[in-house]
């Protein structure tokens, strides 16, 4: 035992020496990018994949000659699903490592935790996950979906004839900022569409909740009141697996009570037998099953990089891909990695989506992206059943919350503001 | 209602065509099949209706393939085929004739897309076509599908099916479908009120949905049902159904409480030995559960690779395997770390907590950070429908049984075996036991191994209802300590009663307080309880405790 411990300590010391070594090497011929994703703790299940995606993109960039004639180097840190630790690690990346940009965060709590650090040190964060909106920071580019690019279209689909014409909604979520804000927007939207509060049931559960018996029976009861009912799930992370297992076992069929999820992608379904779940829905901007040449190439590249043909791709990976490509293009255009110059170059930057069409970065730091709604298949894939004809512009401030509807996010002149009712600078005339 | 009319008209049209022009039936089949590949879901749904109404012998296999996502279009010539999975690609059959067309690669085919709306139409159509099936289960499904679609032209076939039905269970489902169809489509209110009365016998959520649908009011305050007498009868039926459902709901809550309790019991019972009997604060207990779950995964992988036919029995192998693996890890931990720390609870706590982090990261490095899929064997999937609104899921039922069995075995081991006697002797009076020739060190190691092994078996059970991820154990460690402390340290019966009562309290609180607040309330109640009775529910008495 003793020798094992000694061995472990030795290995740890070696690891420190190696990372220390690369840090010391940082010279003028290297551009550093930070990777701020949890590699341990509850969110590791989702975030580790994104770390690998960034590494793959860096690898590809270097193979094609790097950036501005320099080699790009990824600095990976592990904030361990610990929200305050995210802020510490962000400071370490920006101050200690002096990275040009950071790709990271998954949960909104972690993003809120690092936000003050990025604003104080004028860093650049690329946030690749769908989120609740109601935010536009000068230092963050949001490459995931805003509510109007995911939640609202999904609910509209459920209310349409093709979606089953739902008139009653159950809003299930994990108890933190993203589900609560999204559900607030959804409730306002549903009220707007003439659905009364009696026909809306809201329920929150803790992170990692595993006993769904009561809630699933409650949903069944709520659905048997004579109106077509649908479930909108903002359940995040691990808790989804026992939730879907319970749905399957209690025999809730998608034709009777469809469940649409905003945080369940191919990766989360990987640990599940999806046979009983066929027909339940997911709303994203990307599905692995979409047939296109770019997507085929991306999947091939991913499999080659990770060395496993069984690994799936998902929406936040596409968002990371788009964010990274845009950043690299912006750096090339600006001819420098200076944050202010890159930010200016980011506006209007375009990258082809993996699913077809083009993603555009708007002045409110959100992307224009297509919206896809898909049904879960028995092989764990999600197949598109509905999609928007054109890209939808991401809306930072929801039109359905009265106090947000007034706000505008626009970081170009004359607005230069993330949450203003009037432009900051008035053109003199 | 207008949608229903449209459907009705379509069916009538289709029926007419079949009657007048029998030779056109095949052409109709080809046309409907082509329409299934249309972009518009409305056209696809109409094609499904017409396929079902034609009753062509190919309609059933086509609709079944469509439902299962096995209907494809060959990209080259747009021929519609039914495909079977093959290792390299698909083996395809012509949808019109059933003729085998050889094997093709996956890329050569384009799937005929289906969504929930179409699935519902297909199920209704298949229901109408399979009411006369030889298989009672298929007839039952057919009856339920017809119940959902409730179309007027199904009344005659339902009545005919009811007359020839020999299986009483299927007959009941047919009666339910008939009553629902009459309620939805009959013109005179006497028939409808009679149908409502008949539906009272079927108190389940679907019937409640149907009946309360009559009482729903639209935007202008107009009720969906215009006839006041029918409304009154519906209200009465609804009241009767709701009374039954409420009663079933209480039974369901009790079941759910016992089920949660049995999960807590499984997780805590190993701890009741290491913490309760030995007095070791083992923060790595949750990780033993996690290792047990990963052992299940490993065993299943072996089964998948070597004996795919016997997959349903993989859990029976996983239980002893998990017990052995985690038991050995436990013995290793006791010999390697804990035995140097007896009598120093704070250091034990820190050391085992550190150990738990090491174990988690180790599993993460070996198996990867993502969840691992542990399959449910067929006998643990699905649910047992006891009565309307009362479904007991098989996996929970088995876990309750398993927890009680583990508990009984453990009690028997401690009570009746020689090792159990030694263990009790060592925990009650170590120096005395030692001087009687008992190898106390060996007993300590075995006891810790036993506690860990039981945690591993709990992991097998938890792998069926929870995520198999490196964090699995963390979710249970706090609850386990809570159960042991609440039940009374050192008393296994206390653990049993503690686990079950916590489970029940949790489940009865949850509908009112919500999952988050419910947990907080339980925690506060336990804290208050411990203030009053520091030794828990079943306190041990005697000198051993005082010391």
From TrEMBL, chain A:
Gene3D superfamilies: 3.40.50.2300
Keywords on record: Signal
CDD domains in the record: PBP1_FmdD-like
Pfam families reported for this sequence: Peripla_BP_5 (PF13433)
Signal peptide per UniProt: 1-26
NCBIfam families, alphabetized: urea_ABC_UrtA
Protein's UniProt keywords contain Signal: yes
Protein's UniProt keywords contain Transferase: no
The name this protein goes by in its record: Urea ABC transporter substrate-binding protein
Record gene name: urtA
From TrEMBL, chain B:
Keyword Transmembrane tagged: yes
Signal peptide coordinates: 1-27
Subcellular location: Cell membrane
Gene Ontology terms: biological process: amino acid transport
Superkingdom of the organism of origin: Bacteria
A Pfam family this chain is assigned to: BPD_transp_2
InterPro entries (alphabetical): ABC_transp_permease, ABC_UrtB_bac, ARM-like, BCAA_transport_permease
UniProt keyword Translocase, yes or no: no
Example of a GO MF term: transmembrane transporter activity
Membrane topology: Multi-pass membrane protein
Record-annotated membrane-spanning stretches: 258-281, 313-333, 345-363, 397-421, 442-461, 481-505, 512-530
Keywords attached to this entry: Amino-acid transport, Cell membrane, Membrane, Signal, Transmembrane, Transmembrane helix, Transport
Broad class of where this protein is predominantly found: membrane
Gene Ontology cellular-component annotations: plasma membrane
Family as reported in the entry's similarity comment: Belongs to the binding-protein-dependent transport system permease family. LivHM subfamily.
Name this polypeptide is given: Urea ABC transporter permease subunit UrtB
Organism listed in the record: Pelagibius litoralis
Gene this chain is encoded by: urtB
């Amino acid at each position: 035992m003793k020798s094992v411990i000694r061995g472990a300590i030795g290995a740890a010391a070696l690891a420190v020496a190696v990372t220390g070594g690369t840090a010391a090497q940082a010279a003028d011929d290297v551009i550093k990018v930070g990777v701020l994703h949890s590699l341990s703790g509850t969110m590791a299940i989702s975030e580790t994949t994104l770390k690998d995606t960034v590494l793959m993109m860096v690898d590809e960039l270097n193979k094609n000659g790097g950036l501005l004639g320099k080699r790009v180097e990824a600095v990976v840190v592990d904030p361990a699903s610990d929200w305050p630790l995210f802020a510490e690690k962000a400071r370490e990346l920006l101050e200690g490592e002096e990275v040009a940009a950071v790709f990271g965060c998954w949960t909104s709590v972690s993003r809120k935790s690092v936000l003050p650090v990025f604003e104080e040190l004028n860093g650049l964060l690329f946030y690749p996950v769908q989120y609740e909106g109601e935010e536009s920071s000068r230092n963050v580019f949001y490459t995931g979906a805003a509510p109007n690019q995911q939640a609202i279209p999904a609910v509209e689909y459920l209310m349409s004839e093709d979606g089953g014409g739902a008139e009653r909604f159950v809003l299930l979520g994990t108890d933190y900022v993203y589900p609560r804000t999204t559900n607030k927007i959804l409730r306002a939207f549903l009220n707007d569409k003439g659905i009364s509060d009696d026909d809306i049931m809201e329920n929150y559960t803790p992170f990692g909740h595993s006993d769904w018996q009561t809630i699933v029976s409650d949903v069944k009861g709520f659905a048997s009141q004579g109106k077509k009912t649908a479930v909108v799930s903002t359940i995040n992370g691990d808790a989804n697996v026992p939730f879907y297992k319970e749905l399957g076992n209690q025999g809730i069929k998608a034709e009777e009570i469809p469940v649409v999820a905003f945080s369940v992608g191919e990766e989360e379904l990987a640990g599940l037998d999806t046979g009983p779940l066929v027909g339940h829905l997911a709303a994203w901007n990307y599905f692995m099953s979409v047939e296109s040449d770019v997507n085929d190439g991306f999947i091939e590249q991913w499999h080659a990089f990770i060395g496993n043909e069984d690994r799936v791709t998902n929406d936040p990976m596409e968002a990371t891909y788009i964010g990274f490509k845009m950043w690299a293009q912006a750096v090339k255009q600006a001819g420098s990695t200076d944050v202010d110059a890159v930010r200016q170059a980011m506006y209007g930057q375009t990258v082809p989506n993996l699913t077809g069409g083009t993603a555009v970065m708007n002045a409110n730091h959100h992307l224009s992206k297509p919206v896809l709604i898909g049904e879960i298949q028995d092989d764990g894939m999600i197949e598109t059943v509905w999609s928007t004809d054109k890209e939808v512009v991401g809306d930072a401030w929801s039109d359905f919350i009265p106090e947000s509807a007034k706000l505008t996010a626009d970081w170009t002149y004359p607005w230069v503001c993330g949450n203003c009712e009037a432009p900051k600078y008035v053109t003199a005339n | 209602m207008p949608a229903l009319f449209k459907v009705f008209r379509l069916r009538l049209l289709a029926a007419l065509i079949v009657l007048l022009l029998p030779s056109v039936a095949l052409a109709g089949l080809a046309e409907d099949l082509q329409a299934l590949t249309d972009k518009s879901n409305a056209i696809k749904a109409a094609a499904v209706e017409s396929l079902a109404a034609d009753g062509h012998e190919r309609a059933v296999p086509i609709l079944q393939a469509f439902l299962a996502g096995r209907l494809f279009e060959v990209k080259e010539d747009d021929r519609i085929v039914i495909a079977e999975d093959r290792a390299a690609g698909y083996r395809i059959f012509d949808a019109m004739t059933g003729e085998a067309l050889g094997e093709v690669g996956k890329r050569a085919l384009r799937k005929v897309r289906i969504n929930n709306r179409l699935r519902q139409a297909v199920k209704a159509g298949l229901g109408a076509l399979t009411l006369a099936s030889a298989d009672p289960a298929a007839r039952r499904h057919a009856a339920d599908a017809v119940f959902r679609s409730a179309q007027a032209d199904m009344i005659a076939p339902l009545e005919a099916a009811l007359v020839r039905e020999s299986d009483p269970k299927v007959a009941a489902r047919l009666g339910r479908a008939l009553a629902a169809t009459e309620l939805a489509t009959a013109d005179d209110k006497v028939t409808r009120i009679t149908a409502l009365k008949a539906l009272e016998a079927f108190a389940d959520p679907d019937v409640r949905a149907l009946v309360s649908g009559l009482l729903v009011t639209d935007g202008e305050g107009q009720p969906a049902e215009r006839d006041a007498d029918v409304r009154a009868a519906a209200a009465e039926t609804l009241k009767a159904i709701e009374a039954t459902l409420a009663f079933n709901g209480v039974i369901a809550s009790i079941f759910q409480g016992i089920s949660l309790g049995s999960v807590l019991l499984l997780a805590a019972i190993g701890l009741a030995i290491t913490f309760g009997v030995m007095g070791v604060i083992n923060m790595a207990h949750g990780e033993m559960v996690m290792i047990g779950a990963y052992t299940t995964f490993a065993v299943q992988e072996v089964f998948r690779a070597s004996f795919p036919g016997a997959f349903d029995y993989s859990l029976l192998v996983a239980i002893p395997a998990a017990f052995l693996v985690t038991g050995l890890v436990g013995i290793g931990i006791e010999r390697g770390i804990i035995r140097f720390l007896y009598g120093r609870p704070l250091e034990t706590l820190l050391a085992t907590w550190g150990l738990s982090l090491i174990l988690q990261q180790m599993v993460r490095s070996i198996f990867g950070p993502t969840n691992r899929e542990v399959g449910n064997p067929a006998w643990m999937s699905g649910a047992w429908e006891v009565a309307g609104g009362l479904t007991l899921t098989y996996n929970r039922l088995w876990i309750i049984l398993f927890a009680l069995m583990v508990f009984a075995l453990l009690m028997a081991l401690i009570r009746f075996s020689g090792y159990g006697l030694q263990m009790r002797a060592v925990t009650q009076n170590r120096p005395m036991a030692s001087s009687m020739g008992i190898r106390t060190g060996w007993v300590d190691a075995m006891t810790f191994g036993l506690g860990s092994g039981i945690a591993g078996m709990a992991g097998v059970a938890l792998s069926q209802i929870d995520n198999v991820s490196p964090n699995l154990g963390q979710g249970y460690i706090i609850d386990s300590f809570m159960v042991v402390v609440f039940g009374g340290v050192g008393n296994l019966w206390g653990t049993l009663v503690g686990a079950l009562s916590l489970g029940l309290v949790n489940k009865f609180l949850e509908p009112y307080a919500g999952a988050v607040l419910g947990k907080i309330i339980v925690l506060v109640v336990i804290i208050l309880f411990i203030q009053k009775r520091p030794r828990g529910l079943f306190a041990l008495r005697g000198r051993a405790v005082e010391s």
